[in-house]
Design a protein that fits this description.
12 helices; binds uridine-diphosphate-N-acetylglucosamine; UDP-galactose 4-epimerase, domain 1; 2 domains; Rossmann fold; alpha/beta; two-stranded parallel sheet; globular; single chain
């Protein structure tokens, strides 16, 4: 049985990926310092899979802590590296925070891969590496444009670091460029745990509808798109998660080298269309206003997903309504205390 280290294992995509890995017979250990995650996620993972996951609470930028943790973990077959800061606007406001956290943590992990000859490294990259796109859909051979924000630049640098290290290694390297992961696990037990003020669209939509947030603003209604709002490629988080399990299979078949894959549904959806999909899925009308554009936003981006479909045998569900209905179920469960284990758990009761 393969043994995989998942960094950021208690975060949004990390936790769904751990569930998928465990369901497919992969043994998992996690590193997460809970900077943007909730400890109860570990109980949610156990509730869904019946398996306990060990988590090391360390900061990946701390090289000594990383080395000590790898010594303690012992043999692993691969690393899936999610842990990173991921807010576009925050990265514009605090660039050095993003450069330090995202780049130093990746560098420390790559050093361990080299030192310990770890077989596979899967990197959470982002469609933001493409910058402003001229031709859509975007495929993996498209030259990377200027990063629109420091977050995007840290992902470009992460991919470049991998290529530089890979050129003299025997490991398999996979950079997965996520488009816009949304929704929640179909069980309603885990999902995106919003921090105080999430910047992403879907938690803002569901939080506005449940009354957790007072307002919902569309960032820009005057873009050169079919309805004036930005276009994105929304992809269900369980599909993204499963792509990691498939990428591990790929790394077993293809021994060395770097593989770069888009993970999107291939459909361009405007902000207004996403709101309509939510209204249809939930049966609830949303109040929103149209405000100014957000700094760092690209106008439109959606994926050519052929490469991922072919290499991974990956068939994501493109229904935005399905994504919205799981996101809404999760919001309702959080509001009623049914998330994580189907019971009302209070964080104070847990000491991990
Ligand atoms: C960006 C990255 C994506 C990354 C994500 C991490 C791009 C193209 N994509 O997603 O790869 O995974 O950050 O956070 O850079 N919006 C509103 N009102 C809101 C919130 C968002 O109108 O309250 C709009 C945004 O302007 C955007 C769309 O909704 O057009 C999606 O925004 P968001 O969910 O924040 O994701 P991206 O910024 O596209």
């Amino acid at each position: 049985m393969a043994r995989i280290l998942v960094t950021g294992g208690c975060g949004y995509i990390g936790s769904h990926t751990i569930v998928d890995l465990l369901k497919h017979g992969v043994d998992v250990v996690s590193i997460d310092n809970f900077s943007n995650a909730d400890k109860r996620v570990l109980f949610g993972i156990e509730a869904i899979t019946g398996k306990k996951v060990k988590n090391y609470t360390i900061n990946l930028t701390d090289v000594q802590a990383v080395t000590k943790t790898f010594d303690d973990i012992g043999h692993i077959d691969g690393i899936i590296h999610f842990a990173a800061f991921k807010s576009v606007p925050e990265s514009v406001a605090k660039p050095l925070l993003y450069y330090h956290n995202n780049i130093q943590s990746t560098a420390n992990l790559l050093a361990e891969v080299q030192l310990r000859n770890i077989g596979t490294f899967i990197f959470s990259s982002s469609c933001s590496v493409y910058g402003q796109i001229k031709t859509l859909p975007v495929n993996e051979n498209t030259a990377l444009g200027k990063a629109e924000c420091p977050y995007a630049y840290t992902k470009q640098i992460g991919e470049q670091m991998i290529c530089d290290v890979a050129s003299f290694s025997q490991s398999t390297w996979v950079s997965l460029r996520y488009f816009n992961p949304v929704g929640a696990h179909q069980s309603g037990i885990i999902g995106e745990v919003p921090n105080d003020k999430p910047n992403n669209l879907v938690p803002r939509i569901t939080g506005k509808s449940s009354g957790r947030y007072d307002d919902l603003t569309i960032f820009g209604g005057d873009y050169d798109t079919r309805d004036g709002t930005c276009i994105r490629d929304y992809i269900h988080v369980e599909d993204i998660a499963h792509a990691h399990t498939l990428a591990l299979n790929l790394s077993r078949e293809q021994n060395t080298g770097v593989h770069v894959l888009n993970l999107g549904s291939g459909e361009g959806v405007s902000v207004l269309e996403a709101i309509q999909a939510f209204e249809k899925a939930s049966g609830r009308k949303l109040d929103y206003m149209i405000g100014p554009r957000r700094e760092g936003d690209v106008v439109a981006v959606y994926a050519d997903k052929n490469q991922a479909s072919k290499l991974l045998q990956w068939t994501p569900n493109p229904s935005v309504e399905h994504m919205m209905s799981t996101a809404w179920q999760w919001e309702v469960n959080m509001a009623s205390g049914k998330s994580f284990l189907g019971k009302d758990y209070s964080i104070e009761n847990f000491h991990l």
